[in-house]
Amino acid sequence: MQCTNCGTENENGVKFCTKCGTEQNPTFVPVGATPYQAPPTPAPPSSDGKGAAVASLIFGVLALGFAWWGLVAVVGLVLAIVGIIFAVVARKANNPSTSGLATGGLVCSIIALAISSIFFVACGLCTACAGGVGSALTSGLW
Known about the structure:
Elements: H1 50-66, H2 73-92, H3 99-138
Helix pairs in contact: 1-2, 1-3, 2-3
């Protein structure tokens, strides 16, 4: 292959001329060689909402489990709120294959939020009342 600048004969496939250093045609491909092909770029991650739908269902079920445990129901409150957020994100993806999961997670999370709130408030009141009665009994008021 000849240099495009000085005409010196160079080996096939060299990037620079051995005499003058001029860059040679980078698209030159020797006879019989396969031109370089870049690997295909991976597709960007899809936002089909499947992960959010599954997460909403998991958080909703966990929230239902924690909703019944009195003062620990505060954990159920937090899990239910996170489950509702995931369900809303999944529903916004508008994917028919995950809408059932997202709806299930949303329903579980809303029910758990209501039950957790009721049990947390009720158990807090019972604890406060029991503390008041206990202190009244020990102080000799009864």
